[in-house]
Amino acid sequence: MAPTLTEKQPKHGFSVFDNMLKNEHEQVIMCSDPSSGLKAIIAIHNTILGPSLGGVRMWPYESEEAALKDVLNLSRGMTYKSAVAGLNLGGGKAVIIGNPKKDKKEAIFRAFGRYVEGLAGRYITAEDVGMSLQDMEWIRMETKYVTGISMALGGSGDPSPVTAMGVYMGMKSCAKKVYGSDSLEGRKISIQGAGNVSTHLVRLLHKEGAKLYITDIDEEKVERIVRETGAIAVDTDSIYDVDVDIFSPNALGGVLNENTIPRLKCDIIAGGANNQIEDESVHGPMLIERGMLYAPDYVINSGGVINVSNELEGYNRERAHEQAGRIYDTMTRILEYSETHNVPTYTASNSIAEMRLKQIGRVKSIYASRSHFTGRMGELVGRR
Ligand code: NAD
C-alpha cells in the first residue's frame, strides 16, 4: 500500500525541502531547458524587505547537490547583506551549472533570462563569478529584471568605486574603536589583491596618508599601484606576515583560516572580499583570542549592492557614494552591539539584520499595499 502523506518517509540523501526549511528559503526554481542545454537554479531566500536581488554565477559544479548548497547559501547571504545595509531588497541568487570557459552560448543565457522574466520581479539578477558583460546583455534581451548594467545603457556601471568607499568607511569606524581616532594617516595597512576594489581603495587610503603594502598574483597590477601610491610590494604568501595595523583582504574567500590567522600581526581585519573566514565556528574564535577586530565582510562590502539598488531608484553616483559612506555608522552600531551583548562582530551583524527583518515584516503586514520604490524599481515591481 502507498504511504499516506502524513506517514514518515525514510530519508535518503540530500533533501531540498529540509535544506530550504533549515534556513527558511521561500522558493527554489530548478530551470532546465534541453534545447539550449541550460541547467540553472534560482533561489529566493526572503522577500520581506523587497524583491530578492543577487548575482548569477556560472560554475562547473561537481554535483547538483553542490550547486544547490551554494545557491541556498549565497541567497541567504544576500538577505543579510541588504538588510544590514538598510536597503529595501530581499535576498536571492542564481547559479548556471556549466564551465564558463567552454559552455557559454547565447541560447543558454537567453533561456535563463526567460526564467528570470517568468518570476515577474520576485528575483532581480546581476553579474557574478564566471559571467561577462556580453552574457548579461543576452540575459537582458529576455528580461528587464537585470541590474548592474553599463552606464551607457542607463545603468550604474562598475560598482567597485562604491564598494571601495564602503570598505574605507567601515575600516575607519574600526580604527575609531581600536585607536580612538578614525584617521588612517600613518597607519600601516596591508592589502591582498590589486584588482578593481583595491585600486579604488588604495587611492582613498593613499590620499589620507596611510602606509600601504600590496600583493597580487598579477605583478603588473601591483606595479601600477606601487607607481601610483608608493605602496610597498609584497609577495603573495608573505602578505600574512607583514607587521601592520590593518589587514585588508580584497581578493579571495577563505583567507582567514588556521594557517593564516596565527601569522597575522594586525589589530583590525577589514576588506571587501566575500566569505573571508573559512569556518566561522572554528576560525572566528581564533580571531577573538588574538584580539583582532574583524569587520564582517558582507557589511563593509555592501557598497556593490548599494550601488545597484540606486540603479533601481534612478541612478545617481553621488548618492550611491553618500549611502556607501553610511557603512561607517552601520559598522559603529555593530561594534556597539558586539560589546554590549558580548558577541563576535559577525554575530552582531547577523542579529542586527534579523531585527530589521522582524520589524519591517511587521510593518509590511500592516501597510502591505504601499510601495517604497520609485524610478526604475517602481516600474519593475509595480505599485504593490
Ligand atoms: P578583481 O577580480 O578585480 O580583483 C581580485 C584580484 O585578486 C585580482 O587582481 C586577482 O589577480 C587577485 N588575486 C587572486 N588570487 C590571489 C592571491 N592568491 N593572492 C593575491 N591576489 C590574488 O575583483 P574585485 O572586483 O576587486 O573584487 C575583490 C573581492 O571583493 C572579491 O572577493 C569580490 O567577490 C568582492 N566584492 C567585490 C565587489 C565589487 O564591487 N567589485 C563588491 C562586493 C564584493
Automatic annotation (TrEMBL):
Q: Does the keyword NAD apply?
A: yes
Domain of life, per the record? Bacteria
| CDD domains, alphabetized | NAD_bind_Leu_Phe_Val_DH
One Gene Ontology BP term is: amino acid metabolic process
Active-site residues annotated for this sequence: K93 (proton donor/acceptor)
State the UniProt keywords alphabetically: NAD, Oxidoreductase
- Which sequence ranges are marked TM in the entry? none
Question: Pfam families this protein is in?
Answer: ELFV_dehydrog, ELFV_dehydrog_N
Q: Which GO terms describe its molecular function?
A: oxidoreductase activity, acting on the CH-NH2 group of donors, NAD or NADP as acceptor
Q: Which residues form the Glutamate/phenylalanine/leucine/valine/L-tryptophan dehydrogenase C-terminal domain?
A: 157-365
User: Belongs to which family?
Assistant: Belongs to the Glu/Leu/Phe/Val dehydrogenases family.
Any idea what this protein is called?
Glu/Leu/Phe/Val dehydrogenase
